[in-house]
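Q: Could you fold this chain for me?
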Amino acid sequence: MNMNGANSHDIQSLLSSSARDFLIRSNGDQVKLDSLKGKIGLYFSASWCGPCQRFTPILAEVYNELSRQGDFEVIFVSGDEDDEAFKGYFSKMPWLAVPFSDSETRDKLDELFKVMGIPHLVILDENGKVLSDGGVEIIREYGVEGYPFTVERIKEMKEQEERAKREQSLRSVLTSHSRDFVISSDGRKISVSELEGKTIGLYFSMSSYKASAEFTPRLVEVYEKLKGKGESFEIVLISLDDEEESFKRDLGSMPWLALPFKDKSREKLARYFELSTLPTLVIIGPDGKTLHSNVAEAIEEHGVGAFPFTPEKFAELAEIQRAKEESQTLESVLVSGDLDFVVGKNGGKVPVSDLAGKTILLYFSAHWCPPCRAFLPKLIDAYKKIKERNESLEVVFISSDRDQTSFDEFFKGMPWLALPFGDARKASLSRKFKVSGIPMLVAIGPSGRTITKEARDMIAVHGAEAYPFTEERMKEIDGQYNEMAKGWPEKVKHALHEHELVLDRCGVYSCDGCDEEGRVWAFSCDECDFCLHPNCTLGEDKGTKDDKSEEQNPSKEGWRCDGGLCYKGVAAGWIQFVASPIEQELQMASLVLTPFEVMGSHVAAAKCKCANKC
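A: Sure. Below is the predicted structure, expressed as structure tokens.
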């Protein structure tokens, strides 16, 4: 986020054209540019962009509160493809816009402010000086409290948060200026002071989110056991639901307390505890300090055995986990009760015991996921080549598909085994291997121990040569690629790019010279996110280019979308999530709605040219 940019702009010349000296409202009214005063937010957005659709109401809430002061105006700069889409989207906005017909001005603003992703909000002061090009992050994190959006104000807000963390108490966490209570499922008000001195779990949940719905019964079981044993423990639900009926129904099934519906503190708490996945259970100790940022996984794994959630208890659990991993067998991974088999192409059962002694790849994937479909041919190619060498390898497909038909359609193109669709083992395997994105490929060695959870990246880069996916094999391959690059220049100038290019190690990438896929070595410019194959750069066959490039699947021409932004241009590449997305929403057109975006916190994502992952 760039704060306090050095450049200043004349607002009227910036937003006008030779034929226009006005902006428009959604009802068609014209507003003269010379009437603008105060700070300006240039809002780059589009109706087809899911993240924009989710951010616009957040911005509208802030705008409506600030516009009463007459010192802040937002101007919509549309990225829509036609006037009808523009009008439909703009009708939901309370601010001004550059007319859709003035594509020249819209393109000029897009280029001037280097808009590579939407939603994008550039904040200018009354003199046209750029205060920040990270307005989306500021609004999400601080809302109205971030006003007037200056470096000094953001610094002050960050210092306040740090001070609050240092001086944290249960009251500072759970009370607000207008509320010093939580509520029970029957609507009674319970004073926060009654909870002081107890171990408190703050349960961030959303009733419509599958993972929350699955975790809640487990948490109820643990809660009731702890209360039955007389432990001084309480849970406070922080619901992310936006529908009151859903909130009431959810709380009615829970034996604990909650913040009131849509309490404003939930946004503050989501940001304060850096919420990045659901479900999350934050533990506050008897002294009011945070003991743990999320014990949901520990409760799934250990139940009441994870209480009292102290560092000492987690050290003890880590030792237990290490012992489990040391004694892990394929049966302990893939067998659960009577479920001791996988299925073949004809639907016949294959006992897990028949796979013992082989290297097993657990392939977490789904038909609805474009990166999964893109990766599948590579995995099939590597699988066949490894099998041709008579290596002892098998793959087991673990589906996240929505129905049997989708599962069958996807599985019929695979030459290996699978867990049956809807198998109960899928959930436990996802938890065990911490599957937060697909496709994911876990390698289990002949001994039954886990070799790596990064086999997907190994095959993407090295194909069949990655077998048997061990650290030793990766070191061998590393040495071969280092030998390949001997004698290559560390830096070059190239006619296709204005800046100096540096020899760099990377994964799989798209060459900006020939648009084909490359791997391992590239000559790149970090400043511009520009990459060339060594053979495109040096004019020789350097063996780092794949024979055929992978088809990509942009959401709109020239754009690719993740849960927090839609990115423009080839250089923007795909996005790999480092935080768990909402599974149901992941299944919609490659767009991801994350629970922490709903709460206004910044989505955790890593921008990468090669990360074809949902």
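A (continued): The two ends are 25 Å apart (CA to CA).
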